[in-house]
Specification:
Layout (H helix, E strand, L loop, with lengths): L2 H19 L2 E7 L11 E7 L3 H11 L6 E4 L5 E3 L4 E7 L8 E2 L4 E5 L4 H11 L1 E2 L11 H7 L2 E2 L2 E2 L4 E7 L5 E5 L5 E2 L2 E2 H5 L3 E7 L1 E2 L2 H18 L6 E4 L9 H7 L6 E2 L2 E3 L6 E4 L5 H19 L8 E3 L3
Parallel strand pairs: 2-5, 3-5, 4-21
Antiparallel strand pairs: 1-2, 6-7, 7-15, 8-16, 9-10, 11-12, 11-15, 13-14, 17-20, 18-19, 19-20
Helix pairs in contact: 1-2, 3-6
Bound molecules: flavin-adenine dinucleotide and uridine-diphosphate-2(N-acetylglucosaminyl) butyric acid.
């Protein structure tokens, strides 16, 4: 088969899957507009399911397909290559039914639920436990996959049930057990799962007390992180006993620039998109930081951000 015939075949197949499931699909969707860092090229295919059931069935239809499947949450931990990705991207943005209160201060949310909205909703409901996440611009599915954490809390600490898509396209309940989550990692990452939603165990508290804690965390974050600029959060996971930000600071690398990308002058583990950076600028700066950290500590730092590029 020629490349053109293969492309026609793929187009026919993906459009048919989308039509059968009633899912919106776009070709060559620019990913820069779906990430907080704002760099990178298009996704060849971009699917936007609206219900958890549709999303589970879409997963089953795509997972053995000719192109790799990539899952997109808030795009707040991603560096997408300038050439984009030849992949079928499933965007979870629309998988955000209103949070639902269950028995015993449990709450059920969809994968596409924005974390900042969840924090606000919990304050209003007098539910404590998710304040730690104030300022994390993720969606719930991505936050669970990464086990996003701050202020001594993380999502693995409140998740009791994670809804995942089975390979056959069903919604399955995974009961969280010990060992499912670690520092910036999870069983979801380990097993390559698609999170459709989650149930969090929270606790009752005075809305004012919860709001005060949220405000304290917000103020701390504003003072230490470049929230007015485009970034993907911390580039590297911390070393077991050392903050990468503090190390980069000590090495005098804050403010270091490549093209439009800059090591934040506020926090050494953030790279900010200062002036229409290209992904290539960001990746070159990441390499510089990695080399400097390796040289300083003798240890290879682990990337926390994920780089989306074709293999
Ligand atoms: P994305 O960036 O869209 O994706 C990240 C990974 O999750 C990818 O592998 C993606 O395929 C996968 N994924 C997305 N959705 C799903 C799904 N439904 N099912 C399975 N896999 C999925 N992180 C912290 O841990 N703590 C912080 O304090 C923190 N602060 C930040 C502050 C700023 C200003 C920014 C920009 C980022 C910060 N981050 C922080 C990083 C980022 O928010 C987290 O890594 C977050 O978990 C990413 O979630 P997301 O929904 O944006 O996922
Ligand atoms: N520090 C410096 N210079 C810097 C940055 C930090 O000296 O440029 C020092 C601080 O003064 C502090 C220490 O390093 O003494 C630790 O800094 P901070 O409290 O900011 O924490 P961090 O280890 O840099 C981690 C997470 C953040 C999370 C914060 C708050 C990682 C890689 N980072 O940062 O998460 O928001 O704690 O809990 O674990 C992320 O993962 O993307 C992220 C932003």
């Amino acid at each position: 088969m020629t490349a053109a015939a293969r492309d026609r075949d793929l187009r026919w197949r993906y459009r048919e899957i989308a039509a059968d499931l009633g899912v919106a699909v776009r070709e060559d969707e620019p990913l820069a507009r779906h990430t907080t860092l704002g760099v990178g090229g298009p996704a060849a295919w971009f699917f936007e399911p609206e219900t958890l059931d549709q999303a589970a069935r879409l997963w089953a239809a795509l997972v053995d397909g000719p192109l790799p499947v990539r899952l997109l949450g808030g795009g707040s931990n991603l560096v997408v290559a300038d050439a984009g990705v030849r992949a079928a991207v499933i965007a979870t943005e629309r998988l955000a039914p209103a949070p639902e209160r269950l028995e015993g201060h449990h709450v059920r949310v969809g994968a596409g639920q924005p974390v900042p909205g969840l924090v606000r909703w919990c304050v209003a409901e007098g539910l404590a436990g998710v304040e730690f996440a104030e300022g994390i611009p993720a969606r719930v599915g991505g936050a669970i996959r990464m086990n996003a954490g701050a202020n001594r809390g993380w999502f693995g600490g409140i998740a009791r049930v994670v809804l995942v898509a089975s390979p056959e396209g069903r919604i399955e309940e995974h009961l969280v057990t010990e060992g499912d989550f670690g520092y910036r990692t999870s069983f979801v990452a380990r097993d390559g799962l698609f999170v459709l939603g989650a149930e969090f165990a929270l606790a009752e508290d005075e809305p004012r007390a919860i709001r005060d804690r949220v405000r304290t965390f917000r103020a701390r974050r504003r003072a230490t992180q470049p929230l007015r600029e485009r970034s993907a959060g911390c580039i590297f996971a911390n070393f077991p006993d050392q903050s990468v930000g503090a190390l980069v600071d000590r090495l005098g690398l804050k403010g270091r620039r490549v093209g439009g990308a800059e090591v934040s002058t506020l926090h050494g583990n953030f790279i900010v998109n200062r002036q229409q950076a290209r992904a290539a600028d960001v990746l070159a700066l990441i390499d510089e930081l990695r080399d400097a950290l390796l040289h300083e500590t003798g240890l290879e730092p682990r990337l926390e951000v994920e780089i989306w590029k074709d293999a």
